[in-house]
């Protein structure tokens, strides 16, 4: 019986295993060094905030795996030997495979800062990070201040977590406005104000120079690069992006760039070896997407597609229109299609931006100024329907059509009806002045 071995028990690896089981009787083993059972990574923050217990983050009961004949092996893969199809574990044992899937996800970036490995320094990605945070920041008596380095989505989640226990937070962001490599200016500036309104000490255009230790190897303070200022703190969160977690395959002959190089069928250069999720890197990016996508839903889609291929129905990975969602403290964010910040914004891309006077709701619509084709939308504090935008992007609707029918896409029509006229009026005014 063919043995499928999946390294990694995140959303990609688990989706793959479930779908292979639906389609076949192959032998399946999931290998993970992190946790005994699959859990929802995005829910870790809610455990710390007291909204749920860790076991509530596990979507499947513990009996699920045995019932579905999916073997779970806890262990750290030290080496992959592709000629003999053998995995070597740090514990000294080995495992043979017929087909191997690498789904090991990401790890937080570290940039060689002095003190980056002290006690109390963590990312916010793994179950172990949550345990470290609980140990070093159980309350504001033990943790007088936390410093977060890097202004992405994980950074804002960590800030919200610490905020929930009234632990003072200083947020060091390299850019001159929050996440402005991704967000257009108006949105980025609104988020700056929103963070400060939550009494978080946001410091833009600010870099970390070093992390200092006390006599016991714990975090004592950080030094700011630009000013030399020393800030006392007990916890440092490193949230300056993530990198594929692939150190263990460096000598395996599997081709790597930043991630494991794959084609559109998620195949590597070695027969019977595949990669999916955050650690997979497309040889050529798909449309405007990045070659590596550390996004929950693309990992799930890759798992579903690859299961078809492994079970004899070869299928290409086609992720469709870009979308994503997140939260900035209590403002929900959604994006559909492409709305570029200052990085990589093409010269034909025009924006219409509307912001509500309460400074917690806004939309930005991107369109092609030459053809008027709708390119994408960002919404903050207004929930939109995915399937409607997906359809409009496929139909290549023009921006006028989208603006006039925006209420169709709104998740809460009665909420939207209060702003509809205002948004349309602002849009019409912009067209006239343009």
From TrEMBL:
<dbReference type="InterPro" id="IPR036188">
    <property type="entry name" value="FAD/NAD-bd_sf"/>
</dbReference>
<dbReference type="Pfam" id="PF07992">
    <property type="entry name" value="Pyr_redox_2"/>
</dbReference>
<dbReference type="InterPro" id="IPR050260">
    <property type="entry name" value="FAD-bd_OxRdtase"/>
</dbReference>
<feature type="domain" description="FAD/NAD(P)-binding">
    <location>
        <begin position="3"/>
        <end position="285"/>
    </location>
</feature>
<dbReference type="InterPro" id="IPR023753">
    <property type="entry name" value="FAD/NAD-binding_dom"/>
</dbReference>
<dbReference type="GO" id="GO:0016491">
    <property type="term" value="F:oxidoreductase activity"/>
</dbReference>
<protein>
    <submittedName>
        <fullName>Pyridine nucleotide-disulfide oxidoreductase</fullName>
    </submittedName>
</protein>
<keyword id="KW-0274">FAD</keyword>
<comment type="similarity">
    <text>Belongs to the FAD-dependent oxidoreductase family.</text>
</comment>
<keyword id="KW-0285">Flavoprotein</keyword>
